[in-house]
Write a structure and sequence with these properties.
- With 118 residues, the chain is mainly alpha-helical.
- It folds into 2 domains: 2-74, no CATH class; 87-117, no CATH class.
- It has helices at 2-6, 14-25, 29-48, 50-74, 87-98; strands spanning 106-108, 115-117.
- Strands 1-2 form a two-stranded antiparallel sheet.
- The radius of gyration is 24 Å and the shape is elongated.
- The two termini are 40 Å apart.
- The model has no long low-confidence stretch (mean pLDDT 86).
Length: 118
């Protein structure tokens, strides 16, 4: 479900209510799903007994937390900073061989005052 929500899609059911809560109140989608499923879980607890209701509530809470953690894990970005005397060679390798983008910063060493590219 986390992968589906990360693509801004829905599996239907209470997910649609969760998406509406997420859109208008800017609450994480997992917590929105927890809110929408909580009422159903309360009704299940009243209908089938408190023991089953507590298990259902536990499942809903775990589901909501896992969804938020999966979405956070999928949206991780990585950055690498390389400081080297061979910046042109490294830049060429990254662009041509790895097919990734490169940003070059001009800087000055605090200790030596030397100008460097990184």
């Amino acid at each position: 479900m986390g992968i589906v929500f990360n693509q801004n899609a829905s599996t239907g059911g209470t997910d649609i209510i969760a998406k509406i809560i997420n859109k208008f109140f800017h609450i994480d989608i997992g917590k929105s799903l927890l809110l929408s499923d909580f009422l159903i879980t309360l009704a299940a607890g009243l209908t089938f007994g408190p023991k089953i209701g507590m298990y259902a509530l536990l499942g809903v809470v775990i589901n909501g937390l896992v969804i938020d953690n999966v979405i956070q894990g999928l949206n991780v970005c990585k950055q690498v900073t390389i400081i080297s005397e061979k910046s042109e060679e490294i830049k060429k390798y990254i662009i041509e061989e790895l097919g990734r983008g490169v940003t070059i910063y001009d800087g000055r060493g605090a200790y030596t005052g030397e100008r460097r590219k990184f």
